User: What shape does this take?
Amino acid sequence: MRHDWTRAEVLALADRPFADLIFEAQQALRAHHSPGAVQKSRLLNIKTGGCAENCGYCSQSAFVETGLKASKLMAVEDVLAAAAQAKAEGAERFCMGAAWRELKDRDLPAIAAMTRGVKELGLETCMTLGMLTRAQAGALADAGLDYYNHNLDTGPDYYPTVVSTRTYQERLDTLGVCREAGVKLCCGGILGMGERIEDRADLIVELAKLRPHPESVPINRLVPIEGTPLGDAAPIDGLEFVRWIAVARIVFPRSTVRLAAGREAMSEELQALCLLAGANSIFIGERLLTTPNPGQARDEKLMESMGLAS
Ligand code: SAM
Ligand code: DTB
Ligand code: SF4
Assistant: This one.
């Protein structure tokens, strides 16, 4: 496992002839994972909208009007009912997201109860709640939290263009307290936000510096949301996106690389290429947090066409 990738090395990798890149990514996948298995996670937005951060891609920021109705934190029993349903539909991990800048201690008992309850259902648990203190990360670990999702999103140079209410270092600090508490990391980024290829390479370099590498690396293709600063961003070219999935697979050979947001706008063929390029996880279900996702029938067809276990 390498932690010292340079921008130039990552750019050279991304620029290799397409077939060479995919071949190397397949080798990395097959060296560490079963090539016929796709890990399935299910998302639930447990607290919608009104977020104090200004992430330029997000429908849930209080800085923008996107027509989304804000709501309070869901009741524990409702979250557990959704988790049970997700399990029945084949989810292995249940990921709960809250539109918060940071977790408040007053919400910790409910969050801990959700974590414990989901774990008792026999699912892996994941939370994404914004920034955490060391003590909060410890409390979540005690409740049985397996993963914390906290993305670096892009390279450090482009980051302040996308969000100005927090710094890259604050993101790294939360990742650090999660690691110290023994919670595994789900950490990746978004492509198609108007970033340069150098910024994509820098994201990979920063993720690779984490020791060990994040256990899960979600690669999101921007879902443009009307009313947000990035609502009109030009979509990233499909094959260019596939290249970056392959780069993530090669740089993070042991990690689960998730083809995360953006599948709804992709053809079945483009999704198949992403899986060929080494992605070995998806979000299942008809919704991500606030936007649509392909859902069971389309995913079963895709898995069947590819001869993957579903
Ligand atoms: N508030 C928490 C945070 O920002 O860490 C958790 C929720 S936040 C919505 C989780 C991640 O979803 C973001 O870091 C971003 O990578 C991804 N995301 C949000 N909106 C997106 C969009 N429109 N398209 C693609 N990915 C998006
Ligand atoms: C991640 O990297 N992608 C997920 C999850 N982590 C929390 C979120 C995708 C959100 C897509 C836009 C939406 O549905 O609001
Ligand atoms: Fe808030 Fe997370 Fe959306 Fe940023 S991405 S505005 S932190 S919910």
About this structure: The pocket of DTB (ligand 2) is lined by residues 43, 59, 95, 97, 128, 149, 151, 188, 218, 220, 223, 260-261, 288-291 (CB under 6 Å). The chain has one domain: 7-306. The chain is about 40% helix and 15% strand. The chain has a mean pLDDT of 97.
